[in-house]
Amino acid sequence: MQPTSPFPRRAGTAEVSVRPARSGDAPAVAHVQTVTWRTAYRAVLPPEVLDGWDEAAAADAWRAAIAAPPTPLHGVLVAVERNVVVGFAAHGPAELGDDERPHPAGPSGEVTTLLVEPRWGRRGHGSRLLAAVTDLARAAGTARLQVWLPEPDAVSAGFFESAGWARDGWVRTLDTGGTPLREVRWHTLLEEEDGGR
């Protein structure tokens, strides 16, 4: 499914856009993930995760996710500036927590990853990616979006909060094979474009 908004924008003299990822974007997506984790997330992610990171294996995993998503509701979008992939977002149906009931507003979707390489930050790429995911989710009948964020990640929390998201009270701890990583869940309810929901 193509994003429904006119995503191409001008930032100064450079054209920027968001588009669905193609298989050939997988190495660039993995590179953005590697650079972002090793710079901006150095104090957030356990050293065991960063030290053992395999960018080539990540590229293979992203290639598979892009070429053969597990459901039609899964997808990967890339942010592009000057024909360079500078960020990406992966999304799909939300996974419910243990003993969690579906949200009364309707189906939930999840932003599983949203990263912009730090040197391309503060140019609106994150906001465009989030807007594109929101448009696709709304078009698919999704009523609510959620995202899990590492608890110490104040930058990402501030970004989602500025977009109108809030914590929903759910917390989980991931086993990283070393230092456990505690995450908190943020969410937002999607309104119809006419304000009807």
TrEMBL record:
Pfam families named in the record: Acetyltransf_1
Stated name of the protein: L-amino acid N-acyltransferase YncA
Highest taxon of the lineage: Bacteria
A GO term, aspect molecular function: acyltransferase activity, transferring groups other than amino-acyl groups
Keyword field: Acyltransferase, Transferase
Annotated signal peptide: none
Region (Disordered): 1-25
N-acetyltransferase domain ranges (all copies): 16-191
InterPro entries: Acyl_CoA_acyltransferase, Bact_Acetyltransf, GNAT_dom
